[in-house]
Amino acid sequence: MKKTFKSLILSFLVLCIYTTASAQTTGTTQFGINVGYNAATVTVGGQTNTAYRSGFNVGVSADYYFNDTWSFKSKLVYDQKGWGEGFLAIGNSSFTTDFQLNYLTIPLMANWHFGHTQNWYLNFGPYVGILLNASLSSFNGNVKDTFNTVDGGLDVGIGVKFPIAKKARLFIELNGQGGVVDVLKDNTRSAIRNSVSNINIGISF
């Protein structure tokens, strides 16, 4: 999993060396759609000690430009999170299972555009996630009641745009999310928080 994600990052950086794009004008709003790959896990006591869950995300966005350097971007994303090979104990039995948590995620981010043609951008800001469903790979059925309905944390990333038409641009983004909310209800042990890395591709217009 880690080798695959590193390969995606390397491909992203090589591809972006050759891009050009034009700056945006003040007051412009760009809308976008995107799909991406998620590598999701959790942190326990600040440490990552679980396997990754492979998933995907798909979303829409609106990006309002205050000027050529700064914009405000909001998203609405279906996000597959969770973790793999997690420990579960029932009675006197214990085993591992994959925890599959699916969210509606809403990032609210500031975008800083830079580079010669300002086609690169950094984004950062908070996100809120609403739990849609939760399941375990070893059981049938929804276990949503075990988890907190609301997640939240920080979203940071870097992206680049490629002009493909007069107003349309292809974009590629690398993002990371770090949760600050315990995903489990009534947890009396170390907090379990979502952690996600993803690579996305989309079109803005």
Order of helices and strands: HEEEEEEEE
Rg (CA only): 18 Å
Please give the largest β-sheet. 8 strands, antiparallel, barrel
Strand tally is 8
Structural class: mainly beta
Question: How does this structure look, described?
Answer:
This protein is mainly β and 205 residues long. It is built from one helix and eight strands. The protein has one helix at 2-16, and strands at 29-44, 53-65, 70-90, 93-114, 120-136, 150-163, 169-179, 192-204. It has an eight-stranded antiparallel beta barrel with strand order 1-2-3-4-5-6-7-8.
Name some characteristics of this structure:
205 residues, 8 strands, 7% helix, mainly beta, eight-stranded antiparallel barrel, single chain, 1 helix
Give a summary of the structure in a few sentences.
With 205 residues, this protein is mainly β. The chain has one helix at residues 2-16; strands spanning 29-44, 53-65, 70-90, 93-114, 120-136, 150-163, 169-179, 192-204. The model is unreliable at 16-22 (pLDDT under 50).
Topology of helices and strands:
Layout: H1 2-16, E1 29-44, E2 53-65, E3 70-90, E4 93-114, E5 120-136, E6 150-163, E7 169-179, E8 192-204
Antiparallel strand pairs: 1-2, 1-8, 2-3, 3-4, 4-5, 5-6, 6-7, 7-8
